[in-house]
Amino acid sequence: MSKLEDTTVAFAHTIEKLGTEEFIPALADTLCAFADADDATVIVYGYEEMPSVAFARPLKGKYESTLTTYLTGPFLLDPFYRAAAYDEHFGVFRLADLAPASFRMSEYYKNWYRTCGYEDECGLLIKLSKDNFLNISIGLTDEGARFKKKHAKALSDVYAITSALCRKHFDDILKAKAPTMRERMHRSLAAFGASMLTKRERQTVELVLLGHNTRLIAEKLGISVETVKLHRKHAYAKLDISSQAELFFLFMEALSHWSGDPDTDPLISYMGSN
């Protein structure tokens, strides 16, 4: 069969399952085939108090617990999540298209991403409604595997029909639920350290958490590399930490004790419990 015929047949089988529990698994399998990928995870953001997993398969016996951890806070640092939630970028993206150059050196990568089972990722970011979006994360699991531009192109060719089907499938679910947590979580990240740090120190810490190196932080804030180093040094001293790893774990611990007030520094609740 031709490529067009293959595409038509694959989506015909998927469309037959629209509105049923079998739709998302069928769609995931179809998209994996298009990108020569090993696995897919589908996460919906915005219509529940925390992101919800619409589809995932356990990988090597550790994926489920890792994904559970992701949903409690690390998703705030996810390049795909931030592209959609903060920058409103929707479409097909490889990890290399969104993550900073130093991403694989970040504590987010070392302590979460590296353990999730994926070596590389290509995401279909789909806007479902004004306050909700979906990430269909297509993954490669073999060591050193990377998505090429041709894989992203193959997924881009079916992005329009995939988006339309997902909006139709999730329409009733979205009408039944109201967004409550996403904006509050964004503000909690921005407020992290507000009770102890200056504005520039907070901005520096946030960018460090997101995996940006010193040079990129300087470019984003419009300041010198030496000034970034000074802000980071002062912030670490105030937070009583000495490394990016300690900063990451402090952030995660603070989120676990967070009161839920979006304007309150998560560290206040954390410090009060210790």
Cα-based radius of gyration, to the nearest Å: 20 Å
Count of spatially separate domains: 2
Spatial order of the strands in the main sheet?
A: 2-1-5-4-3
In CATH, the homologous superfamily of the largest domain goes by the name Transcription factor LuxR-like, autoinducer-binding domain
SSE string: HHEEHHEHHEEHHHHHHHH
How much helix is in the residues?
A: 40-55%
The backbone outline, from C-alpha atoms, is elongated
CATH class of the largest domain reads Alpha Beta
Second CATH tier, the architecture of the largest domain = 2-Layer Sandwich
Overall mean pLDDT: 85
Main β sheet profile: 5 strands, antiparallel
SS element count, helices: 14
What would you say this structure looks like, in words?
The chain is an alpha+beta fold and 274 residues long. The chain has two domains: 3-176, Beta-Lactamase (2-Layer Sandwich), CATH 3.30.450.80; 182-269, Orthogonal Bundle (Arc Repressor Mutant, subunit A), CATH 1.10.10. 51% of the residues lie in helices and 12% in strands. The protein is built from 14 helices and five strands. It has helices spanning 3-15, 23-34, 63-71, 79-85, 95-98, 107-111, 149-157, 159-176, 182-191, 199-209, 214-221, 225-239, 244-256, 266-272; strands at residues 39-45, 52-55, 91-94, 120-129, 132-140. Strands 2-1-5-4-3 form a five-stranded antiparallel sheet, with helices on both faces. A hairpin with a 2-residue loop joins strand 4 and strand 5. Helix 10 (199-209) crosses helix 12. The longest helix has 18 residues, at 159-176. The radius of gyration is 20 Å and the shape is elongated. The N and C termini lie far apart (65 Å). The mean pLDDT is 85.
